[in-house]
Amino acid sequence: MAQRWDRASEHGEMARVLWPEPDDVPNTPRPADATFLRMYPPGRQPRPGSLRSDHLEMDSHWHFHDMHQLFFTFEGAIELEAEDGRHLISQQLAAWIPAQVAHLAHLHRTPSVSIFFNSDMIAEPGRRIRSLIVTPLMREMMRETARWPLHRPQSPVRRAFYTALAALCEEWIESQETGLFLPACADPRLKRALDHTARHSQAKLAEICAIAGMSERSLRRHLRAETGLTWEAYRQRSRLLQAITLLGETDEPIIAIAARCGFESPSAFAKAFRAAMGEAPSDYRTRGAGGAGTRCRIDRQVGPS
User: Fold this and answer.
1) Contact criterion met (CB below 8 Å) for 92 and 107
2) The domain at 2-177 falls in which architecture?
3) Does CATH number 1.10.10.60 belong to domain 182-288?
4) Is the dihedral of CA 238, 244, 247, 253 positive or negative?
5) pLDDT of 51-66, one tens digit each?
6) 153-177, pLDDT tens digit by residue?
7) Reported pTM
8) Residues spanned by CATH 1.10.10.60 within the chain?
9) Which residues partner with 94 through β-bridges?
10) Of all helices (H) and strands (E), which one includes residue 208?
11) Among 31, 113, 116, 248, which residue's CB has the most CB atoms within a 10 Å radius?
12) Which of 228, 243, 241, 232 shows the shortest CA–CA distance to 205?
């Protein structure tokens, strides 16, 4: 965020307007320690606007805003963390972050845009981060927000545009959500197990249990109690997130992606992908390359429960 930006960088002008106070990165190791990060000049009222990042290298501190945020990446992927888990936001997904929700972000020179809305512009914003499937209309409107950065003057066209976008966001929050969310665990043994599962998509349960120092029965029982998921369901979500990234960032054949991510067969991959994303992997890739495909349905649950 502002505290990590060089005043002479791509955000120099915006940083000087929004945060004229000296840079200071707070020590916020936990969500409970999150600090408020203002997205408007001191002494002013909040107003909707965008913040575009192309070359930002940042691991932010835990923070929250008093504005709602829509987060989108044009290339690569961004990782968001919240108290209840992690979201990997690839170029076919967007993150909805309601006001007051503590979070941190990992951006590594990933072209992206954050769009902010006044808290009273969305009637039902929810109380948690959501991963949303990006439709062609959503993508084009998010691109268009670059015309009105946060620090630039208000105008009638800007006001009308963000009013319309806010109304659409209220619809997208409900209709475009996908269940590709990796819940967090307080138990350090489970955290080790899930971190290894996310990094090694083909790992077997016996290997995971050894890393966690738990029996299979104990791991299953504690994981279900903390997350509501089986280990297989968590692994399925992790595999799909990896596949989404590979589909968007590489030209690797879909059959190779299925094998690399640990799916038993291309048909098993296609079935799981369609259940989560509402479309086939090939259609998803085509849409990401500028195709006109549209999503019809999103299942809320991903993987066996």
Assistant:
1) no
2) Sandwich (2.60)
3) yes
4) positive
5) 998 877 888 889 999 9
6) 899 999 999 999 999 999 999 999 9
7) 0.80
8) 182-288
9) 72, 132
10) helix 205-212
11) 116
12) 232
